[in-house]
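User: quick one, fold this
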Amino acid sequence: MTKRIFILDGHPGARSLSRSLAEAYGEAAREAGHEVRMTHLHDLSFDGDRGRAGYAHAKPLEPVLEEEVLQHLEWCEHLVLATPLWWGGLPAKLKGLIDRSFLPGRVFDTDVPEGRMPKPLLTGRSARVLITSDTPGWFMRLAYRNAVLWQLRGQILGFVGFKPTRFSQFAGASDPAPGTVEGWLRTARKLGTRAI
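Assistant:
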């Protein structure tokens, strides 16, 4: 069964391992017959600062966030987010994209009875996160308790309806052993072929 896949390369640099993984996934998914849309964070120009707290006085949304993010999120059946892990979290520009574009009325609904959690509006979709890092997976689990995974799965993607959200971590990204990156790209291609 083919899927509509939105791939967000969440690395702010023009060239990166995250971008290479995203492109390998996308190429394999297209070859397998899936419909793919891809956005590179580096190519987007927007103000990542939400400004005042709350949504009542939100800044006007830049057209690029509407066209290259929100429309693709609403269109897709499967989201792939490729991102580096920096200082235990997401790059500032990627977090700014989420802060600015994950808006009530578009990705979640706040018109719910008092005391209830907002209703997710992007249900029926799955997600895969491709994380590059220098932190080994065992250290992420033991020392950091997988904080970024909890944030993405529960407080961001799951909050707006992406379930399940699965993770693939590529650790030792700054100085990989010979042949390691090629193996990681093969892994991304396998995931893309299966659209998982």
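User: anything notable?
Assistant: The helical segments are 17-31, 63-75, 92-101, 137-142, 147-160, 180-194.
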